[in-house]
Design goal:
Belongs to the enoyl-CoA hydratase/isomerase family. The chain is built from 12 helices and 10 strands. The protein is an alpha/beta fold. The chain has 2 domains: about 190 residues, 2-enoyl-CoA Hydratase, Chain A, domain 1, CATH 3.90.226; about 45 residues, Lyase 2-enoyl-coa Hydratase, Chain  A, domain 2. The strands form 2 sheets. Strands 1-2-3-5-7-10 form a 6-stranded mixed sheet, with helices on both faces. Strands 4-6-8-9 form a 4-stranded mixed sheet. The structure holds acetoacetyl-coenzyme A (CAA).
């Protein structure tokens, strides 16, 4: 399917989704969000795809929700259309792993989109922020929730209340991103992480994603029990037999997602 605001390439088991509204620093408007959801759902159902990478441009992953799209809307408009709710639910339903490869600005909805992905790899030019307060509003796609869980209350309050940006080094120190690399290395690093994941058993990959995300919704004891039960269930797979046999036979496992 041809998209207007994103570019999608599927190669070597990886779906690479590039946000592509260069004139608006990839601001998230209705069209882009709907195309992104469509592309993610395509990747979910495409058997060839084993990992997804979402990225932007060198200057901006995404500079937020599209302010021009929102500026004239009333409370009744955004409440009635439930602005951003369907998209965030759809993105949350993707079971395959999603890596955000961030260069430049990841602000507002851009930072929130990166945090909806399973982990973030960024370039040393990355800048994260929730500057919605400067617009007389607040984060609406997870900036007060996921950011707080990622970096703790102090830094989340600081960013949401002052609107200041966090650079790549601080973001790594705070646990918002998993890796920082020089700008030129970003896509190589993200694609290589995606390839590593693509080699694993998809059943295990999806189970790990589900269990890790459950940790945000459950008490520790319930989460530990959920994890253990899923761990037990993986012994019903051929991939568990293959993985453990390959270890004993000192060879690489050949996973078949069974
Ligand atoms: N929405 C719409 N257009 C945007 C945009 C946004 N979020 N961010 C940038 N643009 C547009 C600019 O209007 C400009 O377009 P024109 O050339 O037509 O004027 C173009 O992108 C380039 O931007 P700048 O000229 O501003 O570039 P810069 O390098 O001087 O500054 C920037 C870069 C610091 C990121 C600045 O563009 C900026 O502050 N952007 C807004 C960031 C922001 O407030 N994001 C939060 C949005 S609200 C939100 O996201 C709500 C939510 O939680 C869901």
């Amino acid at each position: 399917m041809a998209f207007e605001t994103i570019i999608v390439d599927v190669e070597d088991h990886i779906a690479l989704i590039r946000l592509n509204r260069p004139d608006a620093l990839n601001a998230l408007n209705a069209e882009l969000l709907s195309e992104l959801v469509e592309a993610l759902k395509d990747a979910q159902t495409n058997e060839k795809v084993r990992c997804i990478v979402v990225t932007g441009s060198e200057k901006a992953f995404a500079a937020g929700a599209d302010i021009k799209m929102m500026s004239e809307k009333s409370f009744v408009d955004v409440f009635t259309e439930d602005l951003f709710t369907p998209e965030s639910h759809e993105i949350g339903r993707i079971r395959k792993p999603i890596i955000a490869a961030v260069s430049g600005y990841a602000l507002g909805g851009g930072c929130e989109l990166a945090m909806m992905c399973d982990f973030i790899i960024c370039s040393d030019t990355a800048k994260f922020g929730q500057p919605e307060i400067n617009l007389g509003v607040m984060a609406g796609l997870g900036g007060t929730q996921r950011l707080t869980r990622a970096v703790g209350k102090a830094k989340s309050m600081d960013m949401n209340l002052t609107g200041r940006f966090m650079d790549a080094e601080e973001a790594e120190r705070a646990g918002l991103v998993s890796r920082v690399v020089p700008g030129k290395e970003l896509m190589k690093e993200a694609m290589s992480a995606a390839s590593k994941i693509a080699e694993k058993s998809m059943i295990t990959v999806m189970a790990i994603k589900e269990a890790t995300n459950r940790s945000f919704e459950m008490t520790l004891n319930e989460g530990l029990l959920f994890e253990r039960r899923v761990f037990h269930s993986l012994f019903a797979t051929e991939d568990q037999k293959e993985g453990m046999a390959a270890f004993s036979e000192k060879r690489q496992p050949q996973f078949r997602d069974k």
